[in-house]
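Hi R.,

Here's the chain you asked about this morning:
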Amino acid sequence: MKNRILKISSFCETGSGGTPSRQKQEKYYRGGVPWVKSGELRESIIYGTEESVTDEAIRETNVKIVPEGALLVAMYGATIGRVAILGVPAATNQAICSIIPDNKIADTKYLFHCLVAHKNQFLMRGAGGAQPNITQSIIRDTEIPLPLMAEQKRIAAILDKADAIRRKRQAAIKLAEDFLHATFLDMFGDPVINPKGWMVEPLGDHCEEMRYGSSVKCSAIKAENSLPVLRIPNVAKEKVNFEDIVYSSLPKQERTKLKLINGDLGAVRK
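And the predicted structure, written out as tokens:
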């Protein structure tokens, strides 16, 4: 009993939501029921959502209310495998699998951390080319090690503390970046309006080469000899972010032409 490994389907209820018709905005949207989209799953607790739906949407469409404490897993596209816990009762769209564990068998926070750890496995099992999908069946068949409840709670508490430290570190990095930006403005002024009257020259005069990227087809799953591909979300906020990175297998000539090296600069083109 101490080393049980059970499929999620054996100790959880699962389901998915839906999207009410956008043609009926007044009837189905801006109501009192929070409506979670997969892009809002960020390994955290969800207390509020960008959009909400009405009681009519719950009664007349395939949208269902999921109870507080349920776990949510993204099943489609760039957010596949992302996880969250509902902090309030809410509805979800069809790209989310909701999981309601039997609290006599599994601790919610422990299961949350197990699902976060399974993200790469979900990515590997995804199907559908550039925008991979996983199904409820894949999630339901996922095996979870389930020690005794006291041990689950102990493990979850340790992981919660580790996650809190990680988030504090991220906040400290953000503060340092803001301080660096403020220091630059104090020393040199806003480069857009140039209040200090610095000499202005074309950027191209000081670059060895400037080139565009490519619109190659990408996949969230890393294949043999594939390279990571940076998209707009990966180069936002003045740094390279490798979260939700995608991959592409390029011909040798194009690989040489497009590959970035340490020290290269990148900018988003509108």
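The mean pLDDT is 87.

Let me know if you need anything else.
M.
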